[in-house]
Amino acid sequence: MARPPLKTWLLDHAQKPGAIWLLAAVSFAESSFFPIPPDLLLIPQILARRERAFLLASVATVSSVIGGFLGYAIGYWLFDSIGVWIVEHLGSMAGFERAKASFNAWGFWLIVGKGATPIPYKIVTILCGVMHYDLGKFAIASVIARGMRFYLEAALLYWFGEQARAFIEKRLMLTMTVVLVLLVGGFLLLHYL
Length: 193
Known about the structure:
This protein has helices at 5-13, 19-30, 39-48, 53-77, 79-90, 93-116, 121-130, 135-160, 162-192. The chain has one domain. With 193 residues, it is mainly α. Helix 1 (5-13) packs across helix 3 (39-48), helix 4 (53-77) runs antiparallel to helix 8 and helix 8 packs across helix 9 (162-192).
């Protein structure tokens, strides 16, 4: 059975020397304006060289968090021009307004929850800028969210290889939801004990 052309291209480029820079660029851009998730590059790059799994997860995490600051800036200074267009074309204004309404009560956990799932992270970063959310908390929540997502993918691919790819592609949302519930539950348990 032949591989689809995009998958073939990604796997071929995953073995090239500049692949890590492409991963960094896509991870950065996806956090603020680009529609393609970095997982499409991260997964084949890890499968091509599993010994670099955690280095690649680190590159994706750091680039994504830095790109999140661009998304934050778009929300803070350019929402009425660029931000609205991004939300309308890569998300939904209704969903954005719902998130905005619950942001004051759940801001940090909203960032962690949405940033760890395949839901477009750029919508969260722009929302944080619109809400003028504390940059320190934004950075911490972004590192937790993006790190949790990319390192979980890296760990699964490192230990299970190609078998994990199918699992990640089909059940990433479920997996990240379970991890998030455990994380939030642990924090709440520590807080109230």
